[in-house]
Amino acid sequence: MARDTTDETSITSTDELVSYLAAGNKPAEQWRIGTEHEKFPFYTADNSPVPYEGPRGIRAILEGMRVKLGWDPIIDEGNIIGLVEPTGQGAISLEPGGQFELSGAPLSTIHQTCREVNAHLSQVRQIADHLGIRFLGTGGSPKWTLAETPIMPKSRYKIMTNYMPKVGHEGLDMMYRTCTIQVNLDFASETDMRRKMQVSMKLQSIATALFASSPFTESKPNGLQSWRSNIWRDTDNQRSGVLPFVFSPDFGFADYVDWALDVPMYFVLREGQYYDATHVTFRQFMNGALRDEVPDGMPNMGDWANHLSTLFPEVRLKRFLEMRGADGGPWRRICALPAYWVGLLYDAEALNAAEDLTRDWQYEEVQELRDAVPAQGLNAIFRNRAVRDIARETLEISHLGLKNRNRLNSDGFDETHYLAPLEEIVARGTTDAEKMLSQYHSVWGSSIEPIFLEYAY
């Protein structure tokens, strides 16, 4: 998230929190696609991580991008920590370990998304190349220890860094040593949100398997295909994972609000200053728990929006839905991720088919699948079927949905070809992680260094 929200509208009841989510309802013609991707910057001379400061640091990249794009800087305690397009159509931000993130504009087609990604990568390369910096597209930092990983000067991350070891064992690795690709998608109504949330919550582990690309930690195989996904199993289980109440046939906005109210907060933002609020839930905040601890110590809508951004379930509900299951990866995967989910969720026939596929999937077995996929990838078994076979079926449904959308580019091609990288994975039966491991044990000579050539932007 590039910039935390400021909205001083007072909150007087939980009904207003439900209405906040419901305000995301949009007719289908207004549905958009917002794609986010993260990547690890590294020095090409020695494959070392890039610090924030210095003439060849991340600050220098941001300053160069600010001049190039004309975007507004985001400043935190005097430090530039991101950029935002002046009309809100996209942003660049930093994750805790220096992961460089593009939060794309809300766009109408995957064609536009892919053009946006390619333009961004070209622009950032024009700045970074002169500094001897490139970017690695994988789900986990394959080489650097946590101690070697830089720390970005972002206030909310200081609070999170102190809090994470109190609620799980892997939170700092999640913050500093993982990358993801996400897509944000719209819904028409509470019923439409429910259908999309349930289908995508059930299928999120299928996406995790398809995008698995984090088999190395500190220059050695870690025994997993998606280390990033496995990390989330022990980061902070109060705010992450598969949410059982989503499986209810009458799940709605109020259920998500009720859950979110009882998740501990991270911070309260007042006049540009961050106050640690990890000792209270939002419900306690509404009941006056911070009245004497922070200025204007009763919650407002900006606090609610910021709190929602600190929840990390497999699918996150805000005024749109965020698909959170995929590892970061090569540039072609950045376009493939939104194509996969748009195909499944934005066409009526495809959504019906995805619902039929997953209709009787129960929470307990979906959770078992979620636990198995980080290590087993496409070889995990669900109801006596390999995930590879289920993935193939979901890709057929997604292909149908994209074909039905019939959004053509200037050459007359629809959006189905963006699924090709995923169709290749299913056809060969091995994930990117397995491909990397094979290379590591053969042509890479048990060295991690070639990954910085073969998976770099």
UniProtKB/TrEMBL annotation:
Pathways involved: Sulfur metabolism; glutathione biosynthesis; glutathione from L-cysteine and L-glutamate: step 1/2
Subunit relationships: Homodimer or monomer when oxidized or reduced, respectively.
Disulfide bonds: C114-C335
Catalytic reaction(s) noted: L-cysteine + L-glutamate + ATP = gamma-L-glutamyl-L-cysteine + ADP + phosphate + H(+)
Job description of the protein: Catalyzes the synthesis of gamma-glutamylcysteine (gamma-GC).
Protein family per UniProt: Belongs to the carboxylate-amine ligase family. Glutamate--cysteine ligase type 2 subfamily.
Molecular function via GO: ATP binding; glutamate-cysteine ligase activity
Pfam families with a match to the protein in the record: GCS2
Catalytic activity, EC: 6.3.2.2
Stated name of the protein: Glutamate--cysteine ligase
UniProt keyword terms in alphabetical order: ATP-binding, Disulfide bond, Glutathione biosynthesis, Ligase, Nucleotide-binding, Transit peptide
Gene3D superfamilies associated with the record: 3.30.590.20
SUPFAM superfamilies tied to this protein: Glutamine synthetase/guanido kinase
